[in-house]
Design brief:
47% helix, elongated, 21 helices
Length: 658
């Protein structure tokens, strides 16, 4: 019973807007009375005694029913339910339409029911009615705007330069004008269209194009720059943002076009400009539908699944319905982190997280026998160039021999695709890490060649401890029949934000106040983002015919020195003033520039214009495999001259200390 009474009380409760609407209706009745009386009064030169009695009689007997009729029409047009503090063009049109309809009806009905009235009475009465009805409603909106602008002008705040006088820029400008939570004020607008120059948008001057950014940032004492051209090409965006980075201003931008389409353009949607935005390359646009149709319903193994590339692979694979996802990593903390993340996001995912090393052939055979993965993404590797120079045998054990053992286990256990993650450091390597990755590519090419020739049994199984993992236990060679595994490699540049990347290092150094260390002022690198790298790996799995080395067209290389300076600027500091840059010299095995492809290799196109296939350099597979067995033995005895053996196998390897 008490609940019923409480519901009735809630139903009977009158909201604040309903009270306001009631007063507004009363106002409209009075305003309409006044509008038409004033029109009649003005018609008789503002002399009440001069008004004809028949005109006055008709007015008095018609105006009250008419005003009540107006209230009904206004209600139909929702003029009593609109939120007038957000009144816009829509409310303006509705009000004009409602007043026009009622005014026309007034002119006809008063003549029809009571008799002729002066034409000026009908015209000026209609005009005054519209002014009074419209004025009271939009006065609230105008007062709020004036109050917000007044409050912003009274308090110190950031001065903003807006780049872009299009739809997105206008939305940002209006959002800033009405936002109470921020005290930013747009003081000037930059736009590349000369037709917009020396004009105003919502009272803010459009002062010039991108070449004038530095001039007007200084002239208007700008604190922040908002980039509001979501449709800009990557090249234009990079050029404009690079100009902006020359100022001391904080940079923000809209993430993309979809926000403009969805009407989600606001100050809160702006994000900080990152170093990735300054690289000047369109992101790779892959048709991932084909990729995920390939993955759907299959068992997928990711070695090195806890690393930067491996974990992103796991995320994208998990999102597209694999039969089972197996994360394999030697470092349990990283593997545990990605396991928790995926279990939380995909509770129904069939997920296995396994710990072990790709160097352990018994462990690899056990995993392939137990889980029978159909697709393998081999991301496990030692990648740190200077550390591998100090421990060359570990690079060979983990990268080359680990790849061989994993590939062999995949081949004899029915794996369909094996995708190796390689690097541009494998091209004309000057360090042992790059050379070891070139060995990995050659291993993949050898496996593919032997399988296509029907000679898979000639691939010697490498292990330092013979045991039950021997693939051909009975010596019949049956295990090597009908092998159809396709082996491919994917060659990457540097990955922004990955473990060991320069970006996290620079950020730590900036956070400590510097100095930021760059090995050489002229050192350049190719860069890509982690999602791009992963999409390329996934594409390799679908494009593969076997034996390819996929190469991404990564655009123009970037100077590391420029990257460091941009990152310092984006952090709000001045290079060499607030944060010093120190040049430490090239590290052991490091090159000034990386190459995407060996000079002897050609390129073939794929369906994606940014992805190419390198034509592998031919080599003697039998001789290579024979030397690989000897190389493994030498690596496991930790011989100091291991580089000489690698140079003998990788003709393009020229160690700097040799």
């Amino acid at each position: 019973m008490a609940d019923s009474n409480e519901k009735n009380v809630k139903k009977r409760r009158i909201e604040h807007w309903q009270v306001i609407s009631s007063f507004l209706a009363v106002y409209d009745i009075l305003a309409i009375h006044f509008a038409y009386f004033f029109a009649l009064w003005a018609r008789h030169d503002f002399a009440y005694s001069a008004i004809r009695e028949d005109f006055m009689y008709r007015y008095l007997h018609f105006i009250t029913p008419y005003s009540l009729f107006c209230v009904l029409v206004f209600s139909f047009f929702r003029l009593y339910k609109s939120m007038w503090k957000f009144a816009s063009y829509v409310e303006l049109v509705r009000t004009v339409e409602a007043c026009a309809i009622t005014s026309v009806i007034h002119a006809f009905m008063i003549v029809l029911l009571f008799g002729r009235m002066p034409v000026s009475y009908c015209i000026w009465g209609a005009i005054l009615q519209l002014i009074l009805v419209l004025g009271i409603r939009f006065s609230y909106r105008i007062m709020i705007l004036m109050r917000s602008r007044h409050s912003v002008s009274d308090e110190p705040g950031s001065r903003v330069m807006l780049i872009g006088a299009g739809a997105a820029g206008q939305m940002i400008l209006r959002d800033l004008s009405s936002a109470k939570e921020v005290n930013d004020k747009v003081v000037c607008i930059i736009d590349d269209n000369p037709n917009n120059w020396n004009r105003f948008m919502d009272g803010v001057p459009i002062v010039g194009g991108r070449d004038d950014i530095l001039l007007y940032a200084d002239k208007y004492k700008v604190d922040k720059i908002f980039f509001a051209i979501p449709s800009a090409s990557a090249e234009d965006k990079r050029e404009i943002l690079n100009i902006c980075s020359e100022t001391d201003c904080e940079l923000k931008q809209l993430p993309g076009m979809y926000q403009l389409v969805l009407g989600q353009v606001s100050v809160s949607a702006m994000r900080n400009v990152s170093v990735e935005d300054l690289l000047g390359r369109d992101p790779i646009k892959a048709d991932m539908k084909e990729v995920f149709e390939f993955i759907n319903g299959k068992t997928v193994l990711v070695t090195g699944g806890g690393g930067s590339i491996g974990s992103e692979l796991c995320r994208q694979i998990a999102a597209h319905n694999p039969k089972q996802l197996i994360i394999f990593d030697v470092y349990e903390n990283n593997a545990y982190d990605i396991q928790l993340e995926l279990k939380e996001k995909y509770p129904d995912l069939n997920l296995e997280t396994l710990i072990g090393s790709v160097r352990d052939s018994r462990r690899m055979f056990q995993i392939f026998k137990d889980y029978r993965p159909q697709i393998v993404y081999h991301a496990a590797a030692h990648k740190h160039v200077p550390l591998m120079e100090d421990s060359p045998n570990e690079a060979i054990k983990n990268n080359a021999i680990g790849t061989y053992k994993t590939a062999y286990a995949a081949m004899v256990n029915g794996c369909e695709r094996f995708v190796l993650i390689s690097t541009d450091k494998a091209v004309n390597p000057t360090n042992i890490m790059g050379a070891s990755k070139r060995l990995c590519e050659m291993i993949i090419q050898s496996f593919d060649a032997k399988i296509k020739e029907g000679r898979a049994q000639e691939l010697v199984q490498l292990f330092t401890h013979e045991g039950e993992e021997n693939a051909d236990k009975d010596g019949t060679g049956e295990v090597f029949k009908n092998i159809k595994t396709e082996f491919v490699a994917v060659r990457f540049g540097n990955v922004l934000g990955s473990n060991g990347s320069v970006i996290p290092l620079f950020k730590k150094q900036i956070a400590k106040g510097g100095p930021v260390t760059v090995t050489h002022p002229d050192i350049i690198r190719y860069f890509m983002t982690i999602p791009e790298a992963v999409s390329l790996v996934m594409l390799a799995g679908t494009y593969a015919k076997g034996g390819e080395i996929f190469v991404l067209d990564m655009g123009s290389p970037v100077k590391i020195d420029t990257l460091a300076r941009n990152l310092i600027k984006l952090s709000g500091y001045k290079p060499d003033v607030d944060i010093k840059i120190e040049y430490t010299g090239l590290r052991p095995g490091e090159k000034l520039f990386e190459e995407k492809l060996m000079a002897e290799e050609g390129l073939k196109k794929t369906e994606n214009k940014l992805i190419h296939i390198g034509c592998p350099i031919p080599f003697d597979n039998d001789e290579f495999l024979k030397k690989l067995d000897a190389l493994m033995q030498k690596a496991y005895t930790n011989k100091e001259d291991i580089r000489d053996d690698v140079a003998d196998m990788v003709s393009t390897y020229h160690p700097k200390n040799a």
